[in-house]
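re: ur question from earlier - yeah i can do the single chain one, its not a big deal. heres the input i used so u can compare w yours
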Amino acid sequence: MEREQLKSTLRDLHDKLSAEESIDDETTALLQQLADDIDRLSQKPEAAEPPKEVSLEQEKQGLLDRLLDLSEGFEESHPQLARAIGNVASALSRIGI
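and the output i got, formated as tokens:
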């Protein structure tokens, strides 16, 4: 159930990103990297193994920290996008990421 909610939340974020025209290439690349990380970490545990120098827990926390930082950065300029990113972070927390 929670993974389905995460998928729905990610679709909502994708829709909001698609509607935004004022997001620069650097931010777009950062969002793509976050999406890749979310996808990898939400897979089976063996598929989510980070590089040996970083623990899985550290990588999960780093992902959440990056999402929250990004959300804060968008609060004034793109409030709906900030809210959608915050929702993704919350959904990830609920499933243990």
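The chain has four helices and no strands. not sure if urs matches, ping me
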